[in-house]
Write a structure and sequence with these properties.
mainly alpha, 2 domains, single chain, coiled coil, Snf7_fam
Length: 223
């Protein structure tokens, strides 16, 4: 009987046709709404002009027309929103159907792969892979140990130096500043020591030296 009434359309084709019809209706509604908005702007200009001229009767008539125009614009907004909701549901149905077809194809392909798969051969491949992987891990471990042994001393030295610097930072000591100040301290120390012989020599030559200072020098000489 299909040859009498034509080919029966699939659900996907019906959804596609309805979606096109809805999109066309939405575009027509949008054009009508834009035309009403342009008319609204013109009415506002005419109302202001008539009010300035004192034509209050015309103002009242155009005000009623403006109210009806705005109500019509609001209706077009609502109608467009409703049609967009229907179009969205149709698109969702199309996506769901497409997903179902895709899943059907994937399921069929997975079944074919499972039938073609040689399980004993796959098991042998996995066993060989595990053996080779164990060998590779063992080789990597031996090489890693050798490298660690070679670099252990250097790493320990770097770690020790880093730890020392960290401790010095925590207690507020700048080791670089200490190294800069060290030579000046070493030079100033002998200078203080040389003052004693000079004082001693001047004590022997100067007859007017203080007696207390002379007594201290005598004690130092005995030591």
């Amino acid at each position: 009987m299909s040859f009498l009434f034509g080919k029966r359309k699939t659900p996907a084709e019906l959804l596609r046709e309805n979606k096109r019809m809805l999109d066309k209706s939405i575009r027509e509604i949008e054009r009508e709404r834009q035309g009403l908005q342009a008319q609204e702007k013109k009415l506002i200009v005419e109302i202001k002009k008539s009010a300035k001229q004192g034509q209050m009767g015309a103002v009242r008539v155009m005000a009623k027309d403006l109210i009806r125009t705005r109500h019509q614009i609001e209706k077009f907004y609502k109608l467009k929103s409703q049609l967009q909701g229907v179009a969205l549901r149709i698109q969702t149905l199309k996506s769901t159907q497409a997903m179902g077809e895709a899943m059907k194809g994937v399921t069929k392909a997975m079944g074919q792969m499972n039938r073609q798969m040689n399980l004993p051969s796959l098991q042998r491949i996995m066993q060989e892979f595990e053996r080779q992987n164990e060998r590779m891990e063992l080789t990597s471990e031996v090489m890693g140990d050798a490298i660690d042994d070679a670099m252990e001393g250097e790493e320990e030295e770097e770690e020790t130096e880093e730890l020392v610097n960290q401790v010095l930072d925590e207690i507020g000591i700048d080791i670089n500043q200490e190294l800069v100040n060290a030579p000046s301290a070493a030079v100033s120390a002998p200078a203080t020591k040389t003052k004693v012989p000079q004082a001693e020599g001047t004590g022997n030559e100067d007859s007017g030296i203080d007696e207390d200072l002379q007594a201290r020098l005598d004690n130092l000489r005995k030591m």
